[in-house]
Give the backbone structure.
Amino acid sequence: MTDSIFSKIIRGEVPSHKVYEDDFVIAILDIAPLSEGHTLVIPKEPAETLDELSDDHAAALGRVLPRICRAVKRVTGAESYNLLQNNGQAAGQAVPHVHFHIIPRFPERGEAVDGKPDKDNGPGLRTTWKPGTLTQEEALELGKHIKRLL
């Protein structure tokens, strides 16, 4: 794994606006936020993608993510938020270290909702969802192979 900006933040070599830290996880405010309160939740283990993360660090993330989400919602007053996690460059991952984005949503402030453009083209998360199809036969075959590996 490459030495990422998050590795340097975890080691204290790069300053950050830390909002949470324990033995396994650190949470910081994003320095280029998509909305007020945009927070990054980062395991301290140096794994690039979620599937490379140990069970202990994954469990630690699962324990703290809901608490951090609740705190961000309460402080910002957001009723909604996106929890975003990308794995690999093709999926939009910019920093090669597992991390989750908590992105509070404020449609009353003119943010994009359901992929529709916002009023002022300001910052925010834009999503487009174009679902495909899955036949019963495809689902059975794919499901069988996934179950076998688990």
Summary: The domain at 5-149 is CATH 3.30.428.10 (HIT family, subunit A). The chain has a mean pLDDT of 89.
